[in-house]
Amino acid sequence: MLAFCTLDADQWTQSFTAAEQERAIAALEAGQVVFCPNLRFVFIDCEDKFFSSAWSDGTSKNISFDATTGRLKGIRGGKSDVAQLAALMGRFAAGTRTLLDNLLPAYRDALVQARTSYRPVQIKGRAVSMAKDDSRLHPDAFVSRPAGERRILRVFCNVNPHGQGRAWRLGESFEPFARRFLPRIKPPFPGSRTLLYWLRVTRTPRTCYDHYMLGLHNAAKRDELYQKSCPQKAFTFPAGSTWLCFTDQVLHAVDAGQYLLEQTWLLPVAAMRSPDQSPQRIIQRLTRRQG
Ligand code: SIN
Ligand code: FE
Prior knowledge:
Blueprint: E1 4-6, H1 18-29, E2 33-36, E3 63-66, E4 71-73, H2 79-103, E5 112-119, E6 150-158, E7 166-170, H3 174-181, H4 192-198, H5 208-222, H6 224-229, E8 233-237, E9 242-246, E10 252-256, E11 260-268, H7 279-290
Parallel strand pairs: 1-2
Antiparallel strand pairs: 2-9, 3-4, 3-5, 5-11, 6-9, 6-11, 7-8, 7-10
Helix pairs in contact: 3-7
Bound molecules: succinic acid (SIN) and fe (iii) ion (FE).
């Protein structure tokens, strides 16, 4: 728990030694956080205006950018502002790609880019529904975009200009967590996953894994006792730092912070060095035993 692999990087284009690459891939696949305390993302002068929560449309959790469509969602702003923020987020996305290519060359041909998000709203005191409340420990599982055989690898950068850290908590490792909650989750009702797809609740049909992961995500967030008493450790990521982890595996929660950039990358389980450490394989093993 709360195992970190700290990397001495201060450039997005930095190259890494074979030993650093080895340390990083082993740490990530084991469910640790790779932390770069000195890797900052710089806003250029005219971008400083984006340091305001007023850019959020007030209903979405984050402002998100989809590189495949070029569309920005969740923002309130004029056309040129939208283009400017999209450019900033595109620059961040490109930076994370270079970082991952240099740090994790084994993943280079397999990574698929997903959403970029900008989070300008203060987390502390924000009102959200329980399922969306990221201040409760959870592994990431998407409702409408099932991950299937893909891992969720996220790169976070705290861009707060006032020196405010991003206060996280990290929980126990995935396997004991899954062992604790899986017995409470009913197997998928026959036909239900196809129906959800037909009804367009999901973009692709949920796999059995997606069903169980969403169940674990919701069960963990709902369990008050678990939230209070499970093993967890707080860590604040300073302003101007970057960190990455497989968020489908690392139990995480955020308590405070404002202005974060995040890039999601998807990695096929088969492209991992040790697929057995994936939540996909862990859940497969545990449900087989259970069933
Ligand atoms: C989350 O991924 O659950 C939230 C992380 C953050 O916004 O700091
Ligand atoms: Fe999350």
